Amino acid sequence: MARFIVRRLVGMVFVLFVVSLIVFLIFNVIPNSPPAQRLAGKNATPVLVKSIEEEWGFDDSLPQQYLTMMKKVFTGELIQYSPRVPVDERIVEGIPATLSLSIGAAIIWLFFGLVLGYYSALRAGGKLDKFLTGLSIAGISIPVFLLAPVLIYFLAEKLKIFPNGFYVPLTEDPWEWFTHLVLPWFTVAILSIGFYSRVLRSNMLDVMNEDYVRTARAKGLSERQVMLRHVLRNSLIPIITLFGLDFGATVAGTAIITETLFNIEGVGLYAAESIAKLELPPIMGVTLYGAFFVVFINALVDIAYAYLDPRVRLGTSAQ
Q1: Computed from CA positions of residues 82, 88, 91, 92, in that sequence, does the dihedral angle turn out positive or negative?
Q2: What is the maximal distance between C-alpha atoms in the chain?
């Protein structure tokens, strides 16, 4: 197991190195315009552009420019020039809001997705299964940018059940933190609830036909024990991988849309504002932050998968 973990961590570092190279090429090399002008922003003065050229060493070789960029990223010297604010500070300030949104939504979609998928598999082909299938397909079909305005209009503005967006820190007021995030949570979660329920239903129906399930029934185990201990448990293993991918994508991608729609001051909203203003240093910082989070979460998922299924780590070690 230790060897497997080390290999996954080494692979994570390699992937992050490749991502950083791609970011460097996209922002500093490929565009056919002076990189200092792009970094300075739309309304930059010639003095600021000249200062950035010297600061980033754009007259140096490309390997040296890459090292300069990574030094700025790791030492906190990556600066947003208008206004002049360290990018890492803005990202750190936004992480609590983004994680609150992502973790809450993940708990909701995982819980409801597993519950609906479980009961749908138990009643496969029946009226309940057909009803839950319809709900799942409806949830999968509704995009975030359409669902959010509908929820805001009916539940926040018309009925005034929940506040209309914004973020209140958990340490400041736990109840306000919760009520302000309910609509964003369900906006993100509804899409995945339908998808997870369909995946779990399919997995459970496949596992029900396995020999060890028939053996468990032959031993006299109750149907509830068979379903929970054997069918559900083994059906959850692929869900772990899926959850890791979706959670990382939510933090690094879906949060940008959701935070913008609900005006939640997290990393996603910071990225959206930077894109609108064409401010490259924040975009670079957020891109690397998102890449690190996705790769790190997937490394944890691989480790968890190997822990639950020894065949994975044994197969890797034998290579």
Answers
A1: negative
A2: 82
> Would 317 be classed as within a structural domain?
no
> CA 201 to CA 116: how far, in whole Å?
8
Residue 86's DSSP bridge partners are: 79
Q: Which domain holds residue 243?
A: 91-278
Chain CA centroid to CA 70, Å: 23
**DSSP label at 85?**
E
**Same domain assignment for residues 274 and 156:** yes
Q: Residue 230 is part of a domain; what is its CATH number?
A: 1.10.3720.10
Provide the 10 A C-beta neighbour count for residue 186: 20
Which DSSP string corresponds to 215-235? HHHHTT--HHHIIIIIIIHHH
The shares of helix, strand and coil residues in the chain, as percent rounded to the nearest 5, are 80, 0, 20
For residue 53, give the amino acid letter: E
Read off the pLDDT of residues 30-62 as tens digits, 9 standing for 90 and up.
Answer: 777 788 887 777 677 788 888 888 888 888 899
CA 34 to chain CA centroid, nearest Å: 33
Residue ranges with strand state E in the chain: 79-81, 84-86
CA pseudo-torsion sign 250, 253, 256, 262: negative
H helices within 208-279, ranges in order? 211-218, 223-225, 233-235, 237-249, 255-262, 267-277
Alpha carbons 30 and 211: distance in angstroms, whole number? 56
**Domain match, 17 and 100 both:** no
| The model's pTM | 0.86
Distance, in Å, from the CA atom of 214 to the CA atom of 221, rounded to the nearest integer, reads 10
Note whether 53 and 202 are same-domain residues: no
Instruction: Decide the pairing of beta strands 84-86 and 79-81.
Output: antiparallel
**Nearest to 235, CA basis, from 201, 195, 198:** 201
Name the CA dihedral angle for 133, 192, 16, 314, rounded to a multiple of 10 degrees. Answer: -50
Please tell me which residue, 64 or 28, carries the higher pLDDT value: 64
